Amino acid sequence: STPSPIRSSSSTRATTTTMSPNSGSKRKADDSSSPSSGNDEIRYNGPSLDEMTEKQKEIREAILKSRPRTGLSGPFGPWLAVPDIAEPASALGKACRYDTSLSFRESELVILLTGAKMRSHTEFEIHTGEALKAGLTMDIVSAIPRDDEFSVKAVDEKLLPLLDSDREKSIVKFTAELLDDSTVSDETYETTKAALDNKDSVLVEITSITGYYTYVCYTLNVFKIPPK
Fold this sequence. Notes:
The protein is mainly α. The chain has helices at 54-66, 76-79, 83-98, 104-117, 121-133, 138-142, 152-158, 166-181, 186-195, 200-223.
């Protein structure tokens, strides 16, 4: 992810750090149901520098400049195989990560929920560090239902009681329902909108973050990309 611009205290964002979640979940890291557990051999991590076209090299350099600490980690290696995908995907990621009205803490809740539902242990592990830096506690992170345990009901029962903000609860409920049902009910839409100052634009942002990180998770899972 790209360096974070300075924003107001309610939306201060953190730089990338990787930290493993200390969850009490019954899942094992090498469980066959974990598409990106990090213990499998990488299937594909993108073209080598020698194989790259000039366009790919240009995009690679732009990504490296925007991600000095993390480089081509995560989905960026495979994406570079198709420059016309890599370039706009990187730009969309920056917009979803840094240019929305959500705080870093709110964004990380959306991203962790997405990683949990999409069974991407790599994404969840990477963003656990981000979430802790953004102000979430390990209790909150560990309470997020993952893999087969993920459902709107499980999120309501396990995660929501740990959140104090009505705004955060609304964002989480909206995201969980979107992930579980591929849409949200009229009631959820209107309730969430009311909690977000009646701004449809914020619902666009939440939907976009969820969609972008679903794409990230698909990439990590298919090509078996580890956290580092």
